From TrEMBL:
Protein name in the entry: EcsC family protein
Organism: Chitinophaga horti
Name of a matching Pfam family: EcsC
InterPro entries assigned: EcsC
Length: 240
């Protein structure tokens, strides 16, 4: 069973790798252009608030011990690891969906509060997943990897291709990276994340429909992040 599961996981990972490397589709390019136009209609103060929030939280991840890992568990197989990961993702999916519904029901003011809250939920989930796979999140290089995984989930396809190539053979590459938090391009990180907030997410700011949008979109975003993280860590675990 263990070998069969690992074979299945490897096939899923290879399909995911193909998606990470492929060129942006016509629809993706069109969506990006529409998002750019929508962003221009949003007040600059809103953009500034989102940018500052993302910047502060990202720097907190790089410099501080903001997040703690769950109690370390002993797993005997990849199957056990990923069962635990799936259960954790499911918990965060429902948490994020409930949070999106509450903030979405409040219109613009509460809708804006969703951005930092959801960002914190996403980062905490990634820290938990890294720990389940057996990586030390107190290590600065592992925190950098977490931020790379985040970008893979929430960036344009053009940027996603570049980030993916950076995590290939990560363990060898990380040994050559400086132990300097300032070396991370957090400005590009927050710009890509902000620009990746899709049309549905912006609809969460609209009264009446915001609650329903918040539930669905947050659920899907956490699901996407969980899938991305699992495959990114599979690349490292199955390489050994």
């Amino acid at each position: 069973m263990r070998m069969l599961y690992e074979q299945q996981a490897r096939l899923e990972m290879e399909h995911w790798q193909y998606r990470m490397r492929k060129r942006p589709s016509w629809m993706e390019r069109t969506t990006k252009r529409v998002q750019d136009r929508i962003n221009k209609l949003i007040p600059e103060k809103v953009h500034q608030a989102i940018t500052v929030t993302i910047k502060q939280m990202v720097r907190g991840v790089l410099f501080g011990a903001t997040y703690t890992a769950p109690t370390q568990q002993e797993f005997t197989s990849l199957f056990e690891v990923e069962e635990a990961v799936r259960k954790r993702v499911n918990i965060y999916r429902h948490t994020a969906a409930a949070e999106g519904g509450i903030t979405g029901a409040g219109g613009i003011l509460l809708g804006l509060a969703d951005f930092p809250i959801l960002l914190a939920i996403k980062l905490k989930l990634l820290f938990d997943i890294a720990s389940f796979y057996g990586f030390d999140i107190k290590n600065f290089k592992e925190r950098l990897f977490i931020l790379h995984v985040f970008q893979l989930a929430f960036s344009s396809q053009q940027h996603r291709q570049k980030v993916f190539e950076q995590i290939v053979n990560w363990d060898q590459r990380a040994a050559q990276l400086p132990d300097d938090p300032e070396s991370f391009d957090w400005l590009r990180f927050q710009q890509e994340y902000r620009d990746h907030i899709d049309l549905a997410k912006m609809a969460q700011l609209v009264p009446v429909i915001g609650a329903a949008v918040g539930v669905v979109v947050n659920y899907r975003l956490i699901n996407k992040l969980g899938e991305t993280a699992m495959n990114a860590y599979r690349m490292r675990k199955l390489a050994h």
